[in-house]
Amino acid sequence: MPYVLVSTQVRLESGPCTVGDEDSDPELMAFLEAKLIKQLGNNFLEWNTPLTPRLVLNRLEQKGYRVVTMTGVGQTSIWTCHKEADKILI
């Protein structure tokens, strides 16, 4: 899985962060200390971690990911991280 989206609410910049959907790599999610949850009102699952965005990005860098873009949407900050195919361990 070469892409990971990391998002957090601006008012909650100290965490939690959403770091994946229900199809994300469970080993990577464990490394990010994420738990699979279902938010009230949603019909899908997502991985949330109590870590701050900086700590999440630092951990992803340890696994070979790099930030390719960052944006803000309303009150949400979103980072897109990518891992090159030759760095992906299968």
From TrEMBL:
It comes from the Eukaryota. GO terms for biological process: negative regulation of biosynthetic process. SUPFAM superfamilies: GTP cyclohydrolase I feedback regulatory protein, GFRP (SSF69761). It is found in: Cytoplasm, Cytosol; Nucleus membrane. It holds the Pfam family GFRP. Coiled coil: none annotated. The keyword Signal does not apply. Keywords: Cytoplasm, Membrane, Nucleus. GO terms for molecular function: GTP cyclohydrolase binding. One of its GO terms (cellular component) is nuclear membrane. PANTHER family: GTP CYCLOHYDROLASE 1 FEEDBACK REGULATORY PROTEIN. Belongs to the GFRP family. This is GTP cyclohydrolase 1 feedback regulatory protein. It comes from Paralvinella palmiformis.
